[in-house]
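Lecture 7 notes: from sequence to structure.
We start with the chain below.
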Amino acid sequence: MLVRSLESAANGMLSLIDMNDNIANNIANVNTTGYKKSELTFKNAMNAAVYNQKGSVIRGETQNRYLGELSLGSETMRLTRDFSQGANAKTNNKLDLAIEGDGFFKIEDRDGNIAYTRNGSFCLNKDSFLVTKEGEYVLDNMNRRISIWNEDMELNDKMDITVSENGMIEVNDNGMKFPLQTIGIWDFRDKENLFEVNSTRFLPKNPDENPAIPAERYTVQQGMLEMSNVNVIREMINSISTSRNYESLSQLVRTNNDMLSTAISVGRISQ
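Predicted structure tokens for the same chain:
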């Protein structure tokens, strides 16, 4: 029983270490634009069947009776993301965009690799393409790279870029309005099927079973950015609770270790 208790406590301590690392990562990304907090789910490491001993004096048992199962501690099962809406912060930058509601921006790097993000901090590259700060191309609703220019426009400092709530881009150039492309906003039926490429970029684990589809319930907010959805106070409370639970299990391990050492010593003396 002492060995089983030690095993259970050790499994619990390992799970709490994972929990504390996850909390630390969330807190570290509290100011990361478009970050979605991560959460851990746990499962029993193993369940041990418990039986009443045959010939129990108290109960008068004549055979072993199944009483149930006893957990031998927990272990980390998987990491998931909370895709709830983060607060939108006003920046007044015409190329900063926030999604209010469902969906992701679709971006493509120079090698053609696709990813999805809620980070709408964009800019124009030297060829007038709409790109992320890392240089990845933003795609429209037809999976084309978005160019903020056409042959009828004159590139100058007086260009006024407007993005409507449905993502339609329009440029006012010297009093003339030029409707351009519409930013693609894509969603997934099963967001639990997404995995993280980096802190703000995601991909579906099974693209064939969970393909990107046009989002329906959203608006694009120009001049704003979606902040992280991490609640710092809640994460700090979780961190304190995790530390206390870890200390309790540590004390349990120390107590059981002392008891086991005593039992071994007594066993040697009796021999």
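Points to note: Residues 2-32+231-270 form one domain. The first helix runs from residue 2 to 28.
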